[in-house]
Amino acid sequence: MSSSRYRNINIVDKQFYETNAFPDKEKLDGIATFQIVASRFDRLDNLAFIHLGSGEYWWILAIINDVSWMYGFEEGQILKIPVDVKEVLKLF
Asked: CB–CB of 66/25 below 8 Å?
């Protein structure tokens, strides 16, 4: 008979995380952007670091470009990058 190796573990501290409501893509349509052509090895977090100053802003690029995950775009695809990240952050 098999038994679980986790059966004697007492879980005391459970943390619950809040989700953030991201702005609709329509709200971001008025944001000033410039365009780049994605290369083969680009990732949203690296592009955010290079162009927005922090990799933590990858989600902004995902929303503006309708990308569902970090590698959700193809080589040669045109990506929009906000000119001023502070303008986007004001929407929260």
From this structure: yes
Is 15 among the domain residues? no
Question: Tokens representing 59?
Answer: 């989600």
Segment 52-73, tens digit of pLDDT: 999 999 989 998 988 877 677 8
Number of domains in the chain: 1
Cβ atoms within 10 Å, residue 41? 8
Q: What pTM value is reported for the model?
A: 0.71
- Cα atoms found within 13 Å of the Cα of residue 41, Cβ hemisphere only: 0
The CA distance from 57 to 53, in Å, is: 8
